[in-house]
Amino acid sequence: MADTETAARLVAFGMRPKALPGRDPDYAELVRRYREDDEFRDTVQRIASGLGLVVLAVDPAPGIVLAATEGSVFEIRMDTYARRTALTNRAADKVLHGIAHLAVAALAFPRPDDLGDDSYVGRVSVELVDGAVREACRVLNERAAGPADPESDAPQLEEVWRVWLRRPEATATKDGRTGESTTRGIVGKALRFLADQGFLVPVGAEGAYRTTPRYQVQVRELAAQRAFDELLSLNVLPVGAAAGSLVAEPAGAFDTGPTPEGGPGTTAHPVSEFEQEEGAVSGEPAPGDPGTSPSVVAHQVSDNAQQDAPEAPAPAPAPAPATGSDGPDV
Amino acid sequence: MSTISPDEGVARRLKALACTAPLHDLDARKGRLEWDAAGYQMAEIGLQAIDQVTLAMDFDHGADHAEIVRRLLPFVAAQAPHAPRAEHARVAQWVIDNLVNVGSIDRGFAVEYGSTDAQGRYQRRRFDFKLLVEVAAADGGVYLRASDEAINVLVGALDTDVESAQEAAETKLETLIVRGRLGDARLAAEQARYRTVQYAESLRRKLEATRRDVRSVDWLDAVPQLLDEALTHIEARYRAETVIKANIADARDEAVEPERRRQAAELVEVVDDCIQRHTQLQARLQEAGAAFRAEQDRQQFSGKPKRASVDVFGQLLRPALGLTVGAADDPVTAYFAAGTGVWSPSVPSLGGLVETLLTPPTDRDPFGAEVPEPELAPQPRERFGEQAWQLVDAVLPVPGQGPVRLSEALARSREAGADLPQLVALRALHAVGTAIGTARTQGDPSVLIAVDDGAVLDDPEFGGADLLLAVAGVEGERRVPGDG
């Protein structure tokens, strides 16, 4: 029973965003024990699982990194996060907030390598993030062919980059702060929120932040994977290049339009079809496939996280919005 | 927007037309303002505002908001010279706010137009555009920039290539100079300058992207090529403008007609400004290579990945940006839920609640905070008291009275008090150099003046000239007859 209490204490440490094993010898001891004592590890995972949490990683640098399962009381909902936006453009606003979070991770870990390298520390700022997204939108704008303007009566069919590009980056307000609905306001909110969650640490006076190991684990082991699966199910994933994340690709290197039917809209992704079937059917990550695709390897990474938690629910119950027609049963 | 347009040209013209709508709208809405704005030509002020922003924005910054209002004032004032200055500022501010479209969430304008798609189906589309854009600067301030649409509306060259438009403007300029039509030449020179600004703007974006992330720009081929083109462009422009400048300078020196001379001189200024802008642009282009190398070092290129993971930018962010709003909702919400960590629900504790409720509210003093005791510096004691001044007044001449000798005044004052002669002497000396201008501005009816007529003062305490003291009236305010 004493062990249960100790194990619960480790889980409790994971819910304190700012607690770190480096600062607390007690915490460090619990982390060490988790890594060495299989029984203790099992108890911790059971407690977490019972609370609706998944242990993503336990490591001396980030400490214990937890994630909430879907529907758990610990889950952060977008509706709560973006509740202050006007009702009229709620859908677009939610997407913009999500994009901001995605962009923060993209700029914090510009290369796949940065995400994989435990010693890597990324630096982000509002200006950097908004600037990079704007630039990406501008490139998409240049590439957009055909009738460029969105249809007026179907806001849902407008591309996200148009919405971002149209938003002002800053507005002059009376008190000199950035307007909340501007892109910089949205990115700023994301950065402050992540800092509160212990994922970023402010450095310097100019609104710059550096990443924490905890953020790296969270993005690598779970968040990127979830988004990856979702995008995979929409058939819009380009082939990942190991070296370059955002080198200007020749136009048409990837297809951005969701292709509801038929083959993957990407250039030949050797396993994308297979991946999609897996995602659509079982919602379970594929068993370690010796594929070369980053997606597969990434799956393996999350597999590791799962092996840590044999009886915990899968961290990614992968809602997998069924693309429907394709994906024959396995 | 009722015409069906199978041809893209119509759509393009409709869009061009739409860009002018906010300007017309200014005049249409001025009647609905709470204050009387009927006397102002708002569209005209709007165009001036776009002009001023375009001219004031440079390579790094936009134009300062307050500065633009200030620059607009003369134009506004010209339309209603008798209105108070505050109203001019208000009109300028209103116009700028409306060109930014303050109040809308996107701070821009949208117009609907129809077009037929490949299947011949008529579709309504929305064209979004902006005229003045607010941008954040590195110092945290918000500046104004004119959008491409605005610059195009302004120059009237819709949907044209930047470079070729500049060529055209300059050819026109040269012809005009040859024909001696300087007024038109000035207009063309200004157009050339707008083009220059526009060109600098598009280059600035490229360089900024490089600074943000070297990999977002193709440094192997595209950028060097771009830099080459830009440098060639600047070289050509520089040469052309120097020639033009020499031509106008000649025209200016040869011109006999003063009006013509003035026009030529103004033109020289405009061309000078163009040359300066090109030089600025060129300096940036030269720094670009160094910026790239510095960024490359900073952004730390390294070898093959040690552990393959997802490429967040290329595989997640960019595809997500390319999705429609409806389709992007699932992936980004999934990312958000997974990427923001764990939320600790706050549990209200009864103890805390009771304490909060029982805490008496802090009283607020209706009179506000205590006024701090001001620290007063001790005032130096006056050398001569009020009484001494009165006694001295008695011995000095008064308006309407004839002049008095200094020796006489000293003798009389000495009878009244021992230290009075000193004050008399000082006032007499001060009267030698009386400042009439000061007296007039202060509204003094008369001043004491002292004149040296050559007599020598014979006094036990003081020496020098025995001045003649008299009171003189000050003209302009109130006339007091004085005999000085």
Major beta sheet of chain B, specifics? 3 strands, antiparallel
Order of helices and strands of chain A: HHHEEHHHEHHHEEHHH
Helix content of chain B: 55-70%
Helix fraction of chain A?
40-55%
* Cα-to-Cα separation, first versus last residue of chain B: 86 Å
One letter per element, helices H and strands E, the order of chain B comes to HHHHEEEEHHHHHHHHHEHHHEE
Largest interface: A-B, 121 and 78 residues
The general outline of chain B is: extended
For the biggest β-sheet of chain A, the strand order reads: 3-5-4
Uncertain segments of chain B? 1-6, 157-163, 477-484
What class, by secondary structure content of chain B? mainly alpha
| SS elements, strand count of chain B | 7
Give the amount of beta strand of chain B, in percent: 5-15%
Class per helix and strand makeup of chain A: mainly alpha
How do the strands line up in the largest sheet of chain B? 5-7-6
Radius of gyration of chain B: 38 Å
Give average pLDDT of chain B, whole number. 75
Rg of chain A to the nearest angstrom? Answer: 21 Å
Helix count of chain B? 16
Task: State the gist of this model.
The complex is a heterodimer of chains A (330) and B (484). Chain A has 330 residues and is mainly alpha-helical.
Overview of the molecule:
The complex is a heterodimer of chains A (330) and B (484). By secondary structure, chain A is mainly alpha-helical. Chain A has helices spanning 2-14, 25-36, 38-51, 78-81, 90-108, 112-116, 126-143, 160-166, 183-196, 213-233, 272-281, 294-308; strands at residues 53-59, 63-68, 123-125, 200-203, 208-211. With 484 residues, chain B is mainly α. The radius of gyration of chain B is 38 Å and the shape is extended.
Q: What would the keywords be for this entry?
A:
heterodimer; A: 330 residues; mainly alpha; three-stranded antiparallel β-sheet; B: mainly alpha; two-stranded antiparallel sheet; 16 helices; 57% helix; disordered C terminus
